[in-house]
UniProtKB/TrEMBL annotation:
Component of the eukaryotic translation initiation factor 3 (eIF-3) complex. It comes from Mucor flavus. Residues 128-140, 149-164 have a biased composition (Low complexity). It is found in: Cytoplasm. mRNA cap-binding component of the eukaryotic translation initiation factor 3 (eIF-3) complex, which is involved in protein synthesis of a specialized repertoire of mRNAs and, together with other initiation factors, stimulates binding of mRNA and methionyl-tRNAi to the 40S ribosome. The eIF-3 complex specifically targets and initiates translation of a subset of mRNAs involved in cell proliferation. In the eIF-3 complex, eif3d specifically recognizes and binds the 7-methylguanosine cap of a subset of mRNAs. Belongs to the eIF-3 subunit D family. Keywords: Cytoplasm, Initiation factor, Protein biosynthesis, RNA-binding. This is Eukaryotic translation initiation factor 3 subunit D. The RNA gate region regulates mRNA cap recognition to prevent promiscuous mRNA-binding before assembly of eif3d into the full eukaryotic translation initiation factor 3 (eIF-3) complex.
């Protein structure tokens, strides 16, 4: 065989376009040089060149079936690769545009009045009023949500009312209006932003759990009454009002912490409520703020602001549709529910205790001669944590943190006395806005306890995480949760105790997927940042509408006092 008869292959010429995307200008035929080239855009969807996983024609059948089943031919998971061809966003460059004026064109209906009336009846025009009423009812009974399992309203609206309460949540959630919340404190015009930290960065931090050392205990606690462990929905107990005094003094005004600051026992000082909020910051939705004070000798005090968010208990903060934040005085508004939950927690923790008291080493540091007999059960345990970097040997580089923790009750197990943190979850109205799809407790608490707890963990993730962290910081053996509901859903002044449940704090945190290493990582990062600040007063604030933590420099501490006085005046009005 000669060389001329052998099969030969020649590489095609490669043209390099020096001007950017598209073919080289010197190889475009003359008749095509004036046609614009469709550029590439990031918004263009590039589908598969070939799909070898599905037989030929199956995708088209699936598209038709899915479109008929859903009642539309829009986007679905079967035709996602055919939604937009390459370069479709620039199709207008090749589209034909008609520039003539067509405003004078109109369609004229030449049918008689009688024919129009018959056509209107044929398409249901005679029921226009009923359709309007039905549309109004749909708006009132779900807004943008779609109900499922609806039956014809043949029994006086009974099925309709039941099914309207069974909404398929999650449908068109993106279409809900975004809530705009106000900041927890008014930002002054002369406040300077020092730093902004996204929650996504905070969630990646980690630090080893430090070992705690008890350095002092004060106050006294009563023994938990085990009779409340037998309370259930069939044997409920009324919640009673018990007037007691409990001091929740800020960090800087605590006389014990002031003594530790003078003795130079630590570098950073805080309370368990402030520290737990920092450790669970990434779960919070509502705005909050913490006062940071840097002293001249390098001490850092993490303080709360009087009248701030620390004095109230939130309700369904993490729900997909939280309670309404309206100014109207309704019992299911956000502010009313916070006051109700705070009242329930205070009285529940006092009602479930016996009169037998367990005293700590030192008396209550906040008590006076007038309030000794009216003090609520509370034990203050001051504990020290080492936040130094691993391998730090120099005493000047070590970071010690002193935290004032609290316990609410004591439980006697043999010869050992264990401490308990007592909290209460509350139910307001399962059918009201902000209920978060909760089951009615009076019907489901005994038979579906797991479902009720799971719903509360979802709707109150931030609150329950803070409670678990506070119990861990105080080294409490148990976290006792009470379930308190309204005696009547329309009355927020009378409540009943439907049951109690005890958890080990570490197990409870594990059930909520709460990472303690991440929490201590957040505390470590905040402490390191505060130690680098110059002497002064600062505000660490969670943005009211975005998951961002901001740090402001406050010119003087008097500005914070002025803000507190203004808030008190607004509340009195």
């Amino acid at each position: 065989m000669t060389d001329s008869t052998k099969p030969q292959f020649f590489l095609p010429p490669i043209y390099d376009s020096q001007g950017g995307w598209g073919p080289a200008s010197d190889v475009i035929p003359q008749q095509f040089r004036d046609i614009p080239y469709a550029p590439y855009s990031k918004s263009d969807k590039l589908g598969r060149v070939a799909d070898w996983t599905n037989p030929e024609g199956q995708k088209q059948d699936n598209n038709q079936t899915a479109g008929n089943r859903q009642g539309r031919t829009g986007f679905n998971r079967f035709n996602r690769d055919q939604q937009q061809a390459y370069g479709a966003s620039f199709a207008s460059a090749f589209a034909y545009t008609h520039n003539e004026d067509e405003s004078s064109f109109s369609v004229v209906d030449n049918r008689s009045a009688g024919t129009k009336k018959q056509a209107l009846k044929a398409v249901g025009g005679g029921n226009v009023r009923n359709n309007r009423v039905q549309n109004n009812n749909n708006k009132q009974n779900g807004g943008g949500y779609r109900t499922v399992n609806q039956r014809p309203n043949n029994n006086g609206g009974r099925y309709q009312q039941q099914n309207n309460n069974r909404r398929r949540y999650g449908y068109k959630d993106y279409d809900k209006p975004q809530r705009v919340r106000n900041a927890s404190i008014n930002i002054g015009a002369d406040w300077k932003v020092l730093d902004e930290i996204e929650f996504s960065r905070l969630s990646k931090l980690s630090f080893g759990i430090p070992t705690a050392v008890d350095i002092g205990s004060y106050g006294s606690v009563n023994v938990y009454n085990k009779a409340y462990d037998r309370v259930n929905t069939k044997n409920e107990k009324m919640l009673t009002h018990i007037d007691r005094v409990k001091y929740d003094t800020t960090t800087s005004e605590d006389p014990i912490i002031q003594k530790y600051i003078e003795e130079n026992k630590a570098t950073v000082f805080a309370t368990d409520s402030v520290l737990s909020l920092l450790m669970c910051a990434t779960r919070t939705v509502y705005p909050w703020d913490i006062v940071v004070k840097k002293t001249a000798d390098g001490k850092v005090i993490l303080d709360k602001r009087p009248g701030g968010v620390f004095d109230f208990v939130t309700v369904n903060e993490n729900s997909y549709d939280p309670p309404a934040e309206s100014e109207k005085d309704t019992i299911n508004s956000w502010s009313a529910l916070c006051n109700e939950a705070t009242y329930i927690n205070q009285n529940f923790s006092r009602q479930v205790l016996d009169k037998t008291a367990h005293k700590f080493e030192n008396p209550n540091p906040f008590a006076t001669t007038d309030t000794e007999e009216e003090l609520a059960s509370c034990g203050y345990r001051y504990r020290e944590f080492d936040l130094s970097n691993p391998g730090t040997e120099n005493e000047e580089d070590k970071i010690q943190l002193i935290v004032r923790t609290e316990v609410d009750a004591a439980v006697q197990v043999g010869d050992t006395t264990n401490y308990v943190t007592v909290r209460a979850l509350n139910e307001f109205d399962p059918t009201a806005q902000g209920a978060g799809g909760a089951l009615p407790w009076k019907k489901s608490l005994d038979s579906q306890r797991g479902a009720v707890v799971a719903t509360e963990m979802r709707n109150n993730a931030a609150k329950l995480a803070r409670w678990a962290v506070q119990a861990l910081l105080a080294d409490a053996a148990q976290l006792k949760l009470g379930y308190v509901a309204r005696h009547n859903a329309k009355d927020n002044s009378r409540h009943v105790i439907l049951g109690t449940q005890a958890y080990k704090p570490r197990d409870f945190a594990s059930q909520m997927n709460l990472s303690l290493n991440n929490g201590w990582g957040i505390v470590k990062a905040v402490v390191d940042m505060c130690l680098q600040l110059p002497e002064g007063t600062y505000i660490m604030m969670k943005d009211p509408n975005r998951p961002i933590l901001r740090v402001y420099a406050v010119p003087s501490e008097e500005d914070l006092d002025d803000e507190y006085e203004e808030e008190e005046e607004e509340e009195q009005k």
